Amino acid sequence: MDLKEKLLSSYLAFEETLDLDNDIHDIRNNAIKYFEDTGFPNKKLEAWKYTSLNSILKEDYSIFPKQSSAIDYKEVKQYFVYDIDSYQIVFIDGIYSSHLSKTTHDKFDACLMSSALNSSKYNKVIQKYFNKIAPKDSLTALNTAFSKEGAYIYIPKNVVAEKPIQILNFSTGNEHALMLQPRNLIVVEDGAQVQIIERHQSLTDNAVFTNSVTEIYAGKNAQADYYKIQSDKISSSLIDNTFISQERDSEVSVHTFSFGGKITRNNLNFYQNGSGINSILKGVTIIEGKQHVDHNTLVHHRQPHCESHQDYKGIFADKATGVFNGKVFVDKIAQKTDAYQSNNNIVIDDGATINTKPQLEIFADDVKCSHGCTIGQLDEEALFYMQSRGIPKKEARALLMYAFANNVLTSVKIPELKTRITNEIADKIGVQLGFDL
Questions:
Q1: Containing H/E element for 54?
Q2: What is the mean pLDDT of the chain?
């Protein structure tokens, strides 16, 4: 039985555990039918031209963990941004861990998706927002069909979340191979503000395939900063689908730091529904070996007087593969749009591969839009100059790579997280940078 057949048969068992009178039932049924018709994406699709899932689909994944596992905080402390006071929503093998979590219902909700889907208390928000911007594609539909657990964050009007919220997903390796499908819903109402950090982390070398979906809604004048830390083991693969709807004068930023994993695919989609909106997409990728990272982005400008800024940096060693497929779409009505898109890459070894395709599709005539990409190696003259000043070659290369990625780090608004990411970059490069931010 292949993975698609296993998922379809598992859905029947999954349904039996649910409240069939729930309004979500029809949404799930329609989603599984769509997945049944389309199956997993393949390289025949233009959007998946450079990313094949074949190597991860052949595993015999457990769809539901047979048992939950307890983890001591000291075992996973390193994966938290532990030097900040934060709320924490933690899942172990897809199951909520109350022991490691710090949730809240004071002023705003930072809790569980399962509670929101099954409690009348949250019906109004679920009916208004759940699955409203997630498009019809096979992996998103698959996640919707099995949607049960994940993070539910609701920030009411004019409320500022005084502490960041961390969403952490751990896999223990209790199963030979495990498939996880977390579903997150984040609603930031008019004038509200929130900062969120998300991480998926395997604790063993057993295979893990995560198909995650996150929907984010930003109301008028809302601010949301979302940080994704992707630094997993080579046995783990992640398909991260994030969809963001913005209203007038809102600002949403998503920073993606991709440092590890077998195959990582980031589908990041912004939809601008009012004027005065700012959408910020930034990322740093540093991979080696045979790792593969694919950033697929879309910013849809639907209204005038809006901005978007995309800046992705990549450093690739050994036989690593990077993909950037970014698109800016400007409707005819979206005059005075200011859109910037940049993808710059450094190839350390000849065996590394970069496929980059920045795109603009513009139907308005009064806009300022630019895009570009570069693929190259470290500046040999700069290396020679630094060595002539007594800096060893290894450290000189590290400093140049750090400088290359630094403009992405400058926009990180949580100082402790900025330090953490800097340290992870230094670890990937293999040196101590010898200075603080």
A1: helix 54-57
A2: 93
State how far the Cα of 21 lies from the Cα of 56, in Å rounded to an integer. 35
Q: Which of 243, 252, 151, 242 is nearest to 192 (CA)?
A: 252
Strands (E) located in 85-182: 87-92, 95-96, 109-112, 151-155, 165-171, 177-180
Pairing mode, strands 87-92 and 95-96: antiparallel
Measured CA to CA, the distance from residue 221 to residue 155 in angstroms comes to: 13
Q: What are the phi and psi torsion angles at 188 (to 5°)?
A: -115, 100
Q: For residue 382, is pLDDT > 50?
A: yes
Q: State pLDDT tens for residues 304-339.
A: 999 999 999 999 999 999 999 999 999 999 999 999
What is the rounded CA–CA span in Å between residue 154 and residue 111? 9
Residues 215 and 241: their CA atoms lie apart, in Å, by 9
Confidence of residue 437 (pLDDT cuts 50, 70, 90): very low
Q: State the Cα–Cα distance between residues 107 and 437, nearest whole angstrom.
A: 33
User: How does residue 378 score in pLDDT terms, banded at 50, 70 and 90?
Assistant: confident
Per DSSP, 16 falls in state: H
- φ/ψ of 382, rounded to 5, equals -65, -40
All structural domains of the chain with their residue ranges = 3-273, 385-437
Output the six-digit token pair for 281: 């997409």
